[in-house]
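Table S2 (text version). Query chain:
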Amino acid sequence: MTATASAKSKFTVLLDPADALAFDSLALDMRYRAGRRVEKSEILRTLIRLAETDPRVHAALAEALDRRQGTN
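Corresponding structure-token output:
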């Protein structure tokens, strides 16, 4: 089967309370700034594309993950 642009994969993300609160706060801020409803899935897809295409975002993500190594 060939994947198409409309085909989507579904994921479950388990967040601790602090991360869930931070994500909720980010979503509310993005909704306020955009002046429209912004779904959390849209935020995640946009962050993925940014990390994939913007070297600065990619490097910041890599550094953050390096700092978290061993803390999970």
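Notes on Table S2: Helices lie at 17-34, 40-53, 55-68. Residues 29-68 form one domain.
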